[in-house]
Structure formats: C-alpha cells, structure tokens
Amino acid sequence: MPANSSSSGQLANKPAVQTRQNVAIEMLTPNADLDFDLVDASPPSVAGQQAGEKRLVEVRIVFTKIGDIDTVHECFEASVYLEVRWREPALDKAVTTVDTSSLWHPDLYVDNCIGDLKHQKEVEVIRVESGDTFVQEKHSVRGKFHEQMELSHFPFDTQDLTVTVCSNLPNSAIDLHEMSERPCRVLTNTFMDAQEWHLHTHVDATKALIHSDSHIGPRKRSALRFTTRATRKSVFYMVNIWLVSFILCALAMCAFCLDQKKLQSRLQLSFILLLTTITYKFVVNNSIPRIAYLTLLDKAILYNLLFLVLLIVWHSTTGQYDSRKIEKFAIVAFTAVYFLGVMVLGITVLCGV
C-alpha cells in the first residue's frame, strides 16, 4: 500500500501537486471477473456524490501508545491509529484499480493537536459480498494533544484523554459516526506513565459540532471526540504528604499533657509544629501541580495549619485560667472538630463532589 508521511494535523488525501495513485481493490468475498480500470470510466467525484448528498463516514480509533500526561500544561503525548471508511457508489462497477486522487474525500484533521504531528497513511478500496464498495484509510498519528484538565480533586483526580477528529467540510455535507462493527480500543501494555496513572480501557465516542469562522462566514463542522480516561494513583501523595501533616497535627495535642501553668512550654511546642508544617508544605510544593486554584490536597494541608493556629490561640488565651474541666472540654472539642473535618474531606473524595 502506498504510504504518505506528513507533519501536520491534516489527514487529507490530496498532495500539493496532484498525482494519480492507483490502488488495487481488495475483494472480501468472491465476485465477478474484473476486466477494466476505473481511470478510463467517468469521473468518480461526480458520479459518487449527488448535489446536496450527506456522506456517512465511519471512524475508529486505537490508542496504541500513551506517553506523558502533563496536567499543568494541559496536554498529553500519544500515538493513535485511525481507520476512516466511507461508501463510494462510483466504484461498484467491476474494476481492478482506482485513481484515489479523483475520489470524494472527507477532508479530516485532528482538531486538538499541538504543533506538528508525525503522520503516515494507507488507502484501501474494499468490496463486500453485497457488491458495495468502500474506501478505507488507515492513519498512524503521533504527537501532542491538548486536553482541558481539572485538578480540583488532586490527588484523586481522573483525567479525560481526548482526540478530536474533525472535517473541513460543512456539517451539511458529512456525517461522522463511530465504526459500529469494530470497537475502539486502548492498548494499556504500552502505557509509559503507569507508575503514576491507571489507564482505563474504555473509549467513548461523542459527536460534536466545531464552530469556526472562514472567509464565507461562520461554519459548523462535524466532529467526533474519542475519549479514554486515566486515574491518578494517590498512594504516594497520601502517604508522603498528607499522612506526615496529619502526624504533626496529632502531636500538637501533646501540648495538653504539659502543665497548664507552663504556658511558655505549650506555646513553644505548638509553634515548632506549626513552623515544621509550613516548612514541609514548601518542600513538597515541587511534587504537586502549581495551579491558580486550591486542590483537595491543598485544602487538607491548610486545614491542618488552621487547626494548629487554633490550638496556639487557645493556649494563649486560656493559659491564665487553672481549670481541669476546661482542659478536658478543650481536648474533646479539638479532637472532635479535627476528625470531623477529616471525615468531610473523606466524604468529598468518595462522592466526587
């Protein structure tokens, strides 16, 4: 099969200089003898599509390799395999070879690619048992793809990984559908970021309309969004960041074991733990995404800091009173408030709020 290489998001079939490409028809079942060439017949671009006819184009995608998932810059690296197939009535006659440069084409491209894509293409003409003829293109695409990523639930976040296939033709001329008899797939054994992410195997195909402006005015273009998902493995962040912060907060309750009259000792212990937590927060900043809003992990650490501040305020204002009843009440109250906050964060994670 002839293979064309390209370095853009375009998946077109027409080269800059028009050349004739003769592709042999692949017979899926035995059929009549083939005795002439289509290039001597009437132009298929005219015979194959009537005025105003909306072409059905089936698309299938296989995520063959997914590389680095960059949540901060909202992109991911991937290699994908695309199959594009459409009905071509002009090829229903018995032929042996066809000139693909003169056929109708869906003029597809990848809408959310970043920079240049490495692209290879093969073209096949297939006839089924009923006599219907289809043109099928096979594209191997590799590059970076943009994806809007949400980190509010970091490190319990699940990110969409989407490749958007769009047509340059208006929506009235083409109808993109997922290929029904062959499902889309994700090859998980080639996933390069498996230490940090769990890659899902399911692919969702969603039809969409891309609104764009052209020299003739605004246009709606048909598109298919193929989406798989990756869930972050949160054990590292919970053990190395949140658990350490939790232990520091738990140690702050030891200040109640000191004599109530020794206010200086209580405040010294509380301030040491507070400064330690703040220092640790700056140290672990290199391990968490730097974004403009608070993640769930940020909220948990800030809650621990607020808890330590409240303990310091309590020791400062009640140190002059010598009451064991107040001390017991404070221990129970602070413990209950802290674990209530931890439970709220836990419910937030489980419910995905």
Explain this structure.
The structure is a single chain. The protein is of the alpha+beta class. It folds into two domains: 4-232, Neurotransmitter-gated ion-channel ligand-binding domain (Acetylcholine Binding Protein, Chain: A, Distorted Sandwich), CATH 2.70.170.10; 235-351, Neurotransmitter-gated ion-channel transmembrane domain (Methane Monooxygenase Hydroxylase, Chain G, domain 1), CATH 1.20.58. It contains five helices and 15 strands. It has helices at 44-47, 235-252, 263-284, 296-318, 324-351, and strands at 4-6, 10-11, 22-27, 55-70, 75-87, 97-99, 108-110, 113-127, 133-146, 158-170, 174-178, 185-186, 197-199, 204-214, 217-232. The strands form two sheets. Strands 1, 3, 4, 5, 6, 8, 9, 11 and 12 form a nine-stranded mixed beta sheet that branches. A hairpin with a 4-residue loop joins strand 4 and strand 5 (75-87). Helix 2 runs antiparallel to helix 3, helix 2 runs parallel beside helix 4 and helix 3 (263-284) runs antiparallel to helix 4 (296-318). It is rod-shaped and about 100 Å long.
Please tally the helical runs, counting DSSP H or I stretches of 4 or more residues: 5
CA gyration radius, whole angstroms: 31 Å
Shape: rod-shaped
Distance between the termini: 51 Å
Main sheet properties: 9 strands, mixed
Unreliable spans are 1-6, 13-51
**CATH architecture level-2 label of the largest domain:** Distorted Sandwich
Q: Could you please say which CATH topology of the largest domain applies here?
A: Acetylcholine Binding Protein, Chain: A
Number of domains: 2
The helix content is 25-40%
Alpha-beta classification: alpha+beta
* CATH level-4 homologous superfamily of the largest domain: Neurotransmitter-gated ion-channel ligand-binding domain
Strand content: 35-45%
GO cellular component, one term: membrane
Subcellular location: Membrane
Domain Neurotransmitter-gated ion-channel ligand-binding: 52-201
InterPro entries: Neur_chan_lig-bd, Neur_chan_lig-bd_sf, Neur_channel, Neuro-gated_channel_TM_sf, Neuro_actylchol_rec
